[in-house]
Request: fold
Amino acid sequence: MRALLLLVFLSLISSSVHAHRVLASVFPSGGAIEGEIGFSNGKMAVGETVIITGPDGGVLGEVITDEEGFFVFTPTEPVAHTFHADLGAGHVARVTMSAEEVARVIGVGAATPTPTPGATAQGATSQPLEVDALPLPGCGSSEAQRALIAEIVRDELRPLRREITALREHHGLQSILGGIGYILGIFGVGFYVAARRRFNA
Amino acid sequence: MHIVDGALSSPVVIAGAVATAGGIAMGLRTLTLERIPTAGVLSAAFFVASLIHVPIGPSSVHLILNGLAGLLLGWAAFPALFVGLVLQAVFFGFGGLTVLGVNTFNIAMPAVLTGIIFGRLIASGSVVRGAVWAGIGGAFAIAATAGFVGLSLALTGEEYLPAVGFVFFAHIPVMVVEGILTAFAVLLVRQAKPELFAPGGVRP
Reply:
């Protein structure tokens, strides 16, 4: 009876079943770097300070995440940018954008622009998305139009990206049962070894 | 409660791995044929209990049940909890494989301490009084784990010091829940199956 009560109590407090890993990503967004920091349980890191450092460890800037865990940083130097946020309790988000990517964001240097997933705005010739080919009223593709399209694409992709992340972090009942099965198996082997040893002795 | 990969400095990771290897060796020596099923069940209980997350602040906490494991298993809590942690790291990405040693030590050492400190106290009095001691023991195991996690972070670097206090306070509700849970579990075990307790731990 008490065990039953405990079980009921346990199931009441178990509001959710998931891990809490830190997820962080940065991607080019026009002339700026956009990033997202959150926990794998879907909670975003709100109002966290993100410190941006260069390869030499010098601080390049500091931004604060908004209520959706997003932040935007406009780089000025074409060096590798490391985004670092301490979310407390040992949760540290650290993600780096390479110098080439940063350079492409700034629009300087970048001798060999390679297409990167997530990059939608710069270097239309090397991008999977051919901005020029889109039938736009008024034809041509001014910077403003490109930025607009990039903005729309980003907005469309955002929920999709979040869903993929959530899916990747999803723990099904199968994994839990599988884990219990492994435990039974491991201790079963231990049991076998111990039993054999006793039998031989 | 699980420290993630890359959060700790190498000396802390190595020290944790060495300490855990020692603990597992100690545990395996006490793990006789009769105790293996108990260890397996507690390992599975730990594996599942850690999946029940209670969101607190920016993070979330979960049950650990290491106090109960320590009371029932003694040193054998090391291999039992280690198996649970390995599977959690592989299946769910809790913690990570490189910090496995530190995580096992942080969770299993308080379990062993609980068994040593509270085992005798539980056995000395009446069943109800034993349950009260078990409750305190369950809460102590969580407090000690939070302390060890805090220590691991503090040893790694100054930047984690604010996190240390947070880790501890975030676990106060878990201490209460685990205390109640351990108290009832010990009460039940002592009434139904007293021989379950670890040799060297509780002798009812």
